[in-house]
């Protein structure tokens, strides 16, 4: 209904335009009728004068023509016509109605036709516009009900009705101690993340779980003038992140994006509800892999917490598909700005889901870049041109994705101590370039997946990672190109 209310000014302008058009058309019709009447009255006068002259010519026939006509009559037995011209005129048919009367009748019928056409055109146009607006509102309401995105009386906004089937399932979040009995499964810059189980509606139904991100309102109900500058900035930042989450993942659907299921506003915080991902994040899965390797477990990467190479490649293809949707398919283009393994979640089938759109920005098609107030993101995954100019484009996301590919192949993250133990402080990207240029490929492959028969595919992925992390953003591929290149790697 809010969207329908927002379109009311536009509808008023359309109605005003149609009324103005009606007045102009009627004025034009009246002016045309006046000109038409004047022209036809002149034509009528000319036709009357012509009729009089013609009648005069017919009645004033020269006598010699009459005599010649009489003399040319046959002399034989037929009777001769000695009737006078007056008698001939009396026996002729009745004269036609005056031309002025015919012209007036024709003028009135033409005027009525023009007026009826104008009125029919205007009435039909108004009916079409009104019916179109009504159908548009009904279509939006139906679409919102199908996709979710409806608000309850308590202020709860549901985006995924397939998961949150009833608003009552989130009623526990309206209590003061609604999260007291829930387990904390993660913490971030905005707050904690909790795990909760939805009520089972039918016997024998599989339990459904949700993840609840609690975003605190800084200072609670305290007036804004009592907050320091830093606290005000944090408050503004969290408010922007909540709005960004709602504008992006609340309204988009893709198998490789973690969609927002519901938003529950509270006086002291906001609750953002998502589908629970059982396998956690890619960052957690890779750390579990390293822990298994240090404990002497199997290095095949197929342990309880590990990721085999086919699983890693599938994750890479899934992230590329989600990024392609954000950059190419969705209008306007959405730039994530914080791609990293911690923001890539894995569902029950180890399918990748891009999450945490708190820093995401929509970039209109007419813009080549967007200028930010400051650099946002995670150290090691931020593109170098973003550092220098505070301007980000879709190629900044491609750079971050290239770092993720390097992490998948090497098993090392930019924050690992490995890069701080060298004499020269280098990052993951520079280190990978040196190793690949020197031909020491074995050093670049994660020991957890090395020697399993996939080394050629891993090296191909590393080359794609270097391609995505070029210093010049113009030399980097697009998200669509990366997805196509990764899809050609066969496991």
UniProtKB/TrEMBL annotation:
Pfam families: Pkinase
Compartment(s) of residence: Membrane
Annotated Basic residues bias: 46-61
Protein kinase domain ranges (all copies): 179-491
Coiled-coil region(s): none
SMART domains: S_TKc
Region (Disordered): 46-109, 216-239
Membrane topology classification: Single-pass membrane protein
Chief location of this protein within or outside the cell: membrane
Matches recorded under InterPro entries: Kinase-like_dom_sf, LRR_receptor-like_kinase, Prot_kinase_dom, Ser/Thr_kinase_AS
UniProt keyword terms in alphabetical order: Glycoprotein, Kinase, Leucine-rich repeat, Membrane, Receptor, Repeat, Signal, Transferase, Transmembrane, Transmembrane helix
Keyword Heme part of the UniProt annotation: no
Entry's Gene Ontology BP terms: negative regulation of floral organ abscission; positive regulation of defense response; positive regulation of programmed cell death; signal transduction
Low complexity bias spans: 83-93
GO molecular function annotation: ATP binding; protein kinase activity; protein serine/threonine kinase activity; protein tyrosine kinase activity
PROSITE patterns given in the database record: PROTEIN_KINASE_DOM, PROTEIN_KINASE_ST
Signal sequence coordinates: 1-31
Source taxon at top rank: Eukaryota
Feature: compositional bias, Basic and acidic residues: 230-239
Record-level GO cellular component terms: plasma membrane
Residue ranges of the TM segments: 117-143
Protein name: Leucine-rich repeat receptor-like serine/threonine/tyrosine-protein kinase SOBIR1
Gene symbol of the encoding locus: LOC100274364
